[in-house]
Structures are given as structure tokens and as C-alpha cells.
Amino acid sequence: MVKDFSETGYWTLILGGSSGLGLASAKKLASQGMNICILHRNPRIEMEEISSHFAEMKAMGVELASFNIDVTASDKREVMLVDLKRIMGPEGRVRCLIHSVAKGSLKPMVTENTGTLSNDDFLITMQNMAFSLYDWTASVFKAGLFASDARVISFTSEGSKKAIKNYAAVSAAKAALEAITRSIALEFAAHGIRANCIQAGITSTRSLKMIPNSEALIAHSLNRNPFKRLTRPEDVANVVYLLCKDEADWINGAILPVDGGETLN
Questions:
Q1: Using one digit for the tens of pLDDT, what is the confidence trace for 59-109?
Q2: Alpha-carbon distance 123 to 100, whole Å?
Q3: Are the C-beta atoms of 63 and 36 separated by less than 8 Å?
Q4: Strand (E) or helix (H) holding 47
Q5: In 10 A of CB 206, how many CB atoms?
Q6: How far apart are CA 26 and CA 241, in angstroms?
Q7: What distance in Å separates the CA atoms of residue 206 and residue 49, rounded to the nearest whole number?
Q8: According to the model, what pLDDT value does residue 2 have?
Q9: pTM for the full model?
């Protein structure tokens, strides 16, 4: 089988690639010959399962590098990019930067108990789930690691536009993520970099299960989706793959719904 990215020297750098949409995207791209670099933040107890996923991708015949670091740590980012440049070699280039960071506060604004949303909660969520997209895009660019035709892809949600209980900090971060994506699409275009957001439908991931009352969100999604099922990580990964192809080079600055028509109702 001919693989789209074999022998291109292309790499995908995935921020948050050990689970969910990031991991599904890594596996899809690896199956098409894309070399993979994954940044993740996991405790030692989870590493056995994560390592099995990494081994699965290596078995596809691609190179894989992984770094267990905090994506918001600027000093570690610069050191890691030096390591990645060495690993990729003189011909290697980052074709795609995928932002799949899901670290944020899920707290109510009003409650009779302690634990309401604070300014610090907003700051931490925004830094991880929005500002880090620009930080990494700028750093990869300054390091000269992007391919001449590169793609920046991030994952947003309907919550960027609609209010959901306990989701205020993440909602704000998703709205900011979309705004930052549009600006990257505008200001980096002259350097061959395209940037787009994928707005996934309700997807059964670890991040979804962390949202209070997620069962109600799932039920609502199943009821209004024309196909009467949730979005799967693989559905989103397929679109990531399409955006990485040469034929997608005229898609720039878009917010692409990947939800089977869920938001039509």
C-alpha cells in the first residue's frame, strides 16, 4: 500500500498525544508514513499503557519520539526542540503541529460549597489550552523546523460559542484558541503555514468524562445527531489526515465542524 507521507521526511509534533484526539491523530498519520513526536504529561503509573500505543505506531515503520514534559514550560520547550532537530536529522521537517492539550478547570461560577472558579483557574486553563498554541507555533518557526508547506491544527468545541455549566474557563480558552488560530493563519501564511481548528462533536474521551454531568451532554448529543451516535476520535483523526495532504493547502483560518451534523439541530 502506498503511504502518503513515506520518504518525505515529514514529522507531526503533537502536544497532548497520549490519549484522545491527539493519540488517534498520531495513529492515523503514522499509518500513512508520517513520523511522530508526542509531548505528553503522564504519571509513571500510566506509562505502560501509553508505551504500548507508542510501540503500535513504531510497528508501522515510522520514527517516533516522545517527551513527558509540561507544554507550558518555556525552558523545557526550547531544550526539547533542540533534541527534536537532532532526532529528525537535516532532512526532517515538521509538516504538522497538532494542539490537543486538555488541561483546564471545570468548576462552577456559583456554588454553595467551596471550589468556585477563580481568576487563577482561568489563567491556567487559558495558558494550557489556548496560549500554548501560539507559544509552540512561534518556537517551532523560530527554530526553523517547519516544512515549507506546514499545517497547524487545534481542537475546539461547541462550548467556544455556547455556555455550558462548569465549562466557563474551558469555553473562554476555546474561544481564544479559535482567535489565535485565525491570527496564525493570517500572519504566518507568507511562510507557508496554514492554521485551522477542528470543532469535534461530543466525543467519548477521558476529557469528556471529567466534565460534571457529562452523561447529560452525551444523551443530548445522541438525540440531536443525525446519525444517532457520538463522534469518535477516529472521525476527527481522519480529518486531521486530510488537512495534512497537499490537496488541503487552500484551507486556512477555518473552524471545521467534524460532528456528523450534530450542530444542525
A1: 999 999 999 999 999 999 999 999 999 999 999 999 999 999 999 999 999
A2: 18
A3: yes
A4: helix 47-58
A5: 10
A6: 9
A7: 14
A8: 79
A9: 0.95
- What three-state secondary structure class fits 54? helix
**How far apart are the C-alpha atoms of 200 and 157, rounded to whole Å?**
6
Cα separations (Å) of 194 from 20, 39, 98? Answer: 23, 21, 12
Domains of the chain with bracketed CATH = 10-259 (3.40.50.720)
Q: Which runs of E-coded beta strand occur in 33-123?
A: 35-40, 64-68, 93-99
* DSSP, residue by residue, 226-253: TTSSPBPHHHHHHHHHHHHSGGGTT--S
Give per-residue pLDDT as tens, 192-234: 999 999 999 988 877 777 777 778 888 888 999 999 999 999 9
Count CB atoms within 10 A of the CB of residue 36: 25
CB 24 within 8 A of CB 198: no
pLDDT of residue 217: 82
> Is the Cβ–Cβ distance between 14 and 98 less than 8 Å?
yes
- Say what the pLDDT of residue 191 is: 98
